[in-house]
Each structure stands twice: as structure tokens, then as C-alpha cells.
Amino acid sequence: MSSSSASIQLDVERQPGRPPMLTIAEGHDPREWAEQHRDALRAAVAEHGAVLVRGLGLHDAAEVAAVFRRLVPGGLMPDREAFATRQRYSDGVYSSVKWPANQPMCMHHELSYALEFPGLMLFACLEAPSAGGVTGVADARAVLDALPADILQRFEDEGWLLTRSYNEDIGATYEEAFGVADRAAVESYCQAHAIEFEWQADGELRTRQRRPAVVRHPVTGQRCWFNQIAFLNEWTIAPEVREYLVDVYGPDGLPFNTRFGNGEPIGEDIIARLNEVYELHTLRTPWEAGDLMLVDNVRMAHSREAYEGPREILVGMAEPRCVFDLATHPQDGAS
């Protein structure tokens, strides 16, 4: 860290309903700007939880990868256990997950169901959609404070359960998710990452993983609502899609679903309430081509709204954390 870099002050603008934004004059070389302003930008993310940088003018995947790597000298993480496929541009640089454009992706914390998750998310926009497609953010501390006390208490006491049924038709296959192909390697991965597994008669894989719903921020120690309970639940799926999936795969064979930590189903009313609280705390600004956004993945949840037209957002993940190290209840890792 150079003294000049450490002393740079960034003028981050705050507006109601919008994520913190830093607007810079055009004409900078994005790589040089990232190198020079890395420490100041990271300090701004630590202060605000997320920062959208406008004016950097990112224009291709190679440039985005170079900027990402300058901002996180510790390196980028590989994507593991994704629930849907991504395009890989280079080591640690991916497309956003392949998800129908007309279906929103509600608020969540990236890979909060994994044993190791990224503490920092990096997003870059190469092509903005003609309508929608916003990557919203929401402060997980404020969300936690706004949740009904009984719902919060149960999830904090029990944690939450993610169930997955891997198949060749919907979402990522287990080969894509785990990065391994043969059964023995899959089983070793699951055992090493606190995932229960069961092979079905047809050769498909079903898994269960219990995770904490509330964690403490690794720097501030503040309690944060941290999970994908609402996003990956059956009641967040569009009704006609849910009915189709239940008809084809059965109620216990959905590609993914979430439950209370003790395995009981989560009611539609609770999922609706979670999504309502998220909406009340969502900050959103439409993407513009060339934008960069950094998000503290513990402090801030993020979403993706439905959109029209081509949309190309690149994603990087960094600063791995172990979810059980941050759990407010140590028993959350128990099966």
C-alpha cells in the first residue's frame, strides 16, 4: 500500500433509495485507476457496505478481469456449488448465473449455503439491458432488525436447510456444481463440506446442508441476516413454474428448496414476509455499460430484477470466509 493510495479520499454520494455511488471523470485507464484507488475504494466499501463506481468505462472481459485482480490482490475464488450455470471468462471471472430474464432473483447472500463463501462480490456491467435488470442491494443489519421477532428467533436458533436434487434438466448438474465427476469424488466433496448426500435409484443426487441464518460480520461483529432462505424457496418461484416442477419432479424432488433447520417446511406466508422486508430496504440504480460495483457479501444482500434486452454482467468473488466461524449459534453446523 502506497502512502498516496492510502490517503486518497473518494467522494461517495448517498441518495435515498439508491446504493452509494462514486462518479469519476471519464478518460482514466481502468487498470491504473483500480491500482491507484484500491485502498480508498475498499475503505469506502467497508464504510457503506456497497459502492457503485460510474465512469470507469469497462469495455471487455479481459479489462474487467485485470481490474478485479488489482482490487483484490489476494486473488479471486473459483465458483463452487452454484445452483445454476455460469459462463467462465477466465480464472475467477464469470457471467451472472443463467436465470430466466423474466424471473427475478430475490435478495440473497452469494453462496451463503456453502461452507466457504466470498466475503466480497465484484460486479461489472459490459451491456446494460433496455429495461430492468437492476442489481439491488439491502443492508442485512437493517433487514434483521425489521424481521418479526418470532421468525428471526426460530431461524437463529435452528439455522436453515437447503435441499437440492441434481438432474440434467434444471440448474447446475452436480459435476458443474462440485467440479468433479465420479461418485467417489462427489462424496468426498460433500463429506468435506458438511453436506449430507443420497444417491437415487436413477443415479441422481440429492443433498441437504444446514447453515446458520444469522452471522456476525467478520470485522464489526454486528449481527447480519445471512442466507438464501427466501430466494431458493419453492414459494419464491413463479406459481406456474412451481406447479410444473412439482408435477415433473414431485414435492421432494425440486431442484432446490429451503426449510427450517429442523427440516420442517417454511410456509408461503413467511417467505412472503421475508421478501416484503427485503423490498422495504432495497437500494437500486439501473446499470450503465462500464459500471463497476463492489459489495460486502455479509453486510449486504443483493438481487437481480427481471429485465428485457441483452444484459452482460461479469462477476468475481474474493476473500473466502467459513460460515461456521461467523455463526451466532455454533451448533448450526450440526446435521
Automatic annotation (TrEMBL):
State which Enzyme Commission number(s) the record gives: 1.14.11.-
First-tier enzyme category under EC: oxidoreductase
Q: Which UniProt keywords apply?
A: Antibiotic biosynthesis, Dioxygenase, Iron, Oxidoreductase
Q: Does the keyword Iron apply?
A: yes
Cite the GO molecular-function annotations of the record: dioxygenase activity
Q: Where is this region: Disordered?
A: 1-25
Q: Which domain of life is it from?
A: Bacteria
Enumerate the InterPro entries for this protein.
AlphaKG_dependent_hydroxylases (IPR050411), TauD-like_sf (IPR042098), TauD/TfdA-like (IPR003819)
Query: Which cofactor is recorded for it?
Result: Fe(2+)
Q: Does this entry carry the keyword Cell inner membrane? A: no
Report domain TauD/TfdA-like positions: 27-315
The protein's name in its UniProt record: TauD/TfdA family dioxygenase
Species for this entry: Arthrobacter halodurans
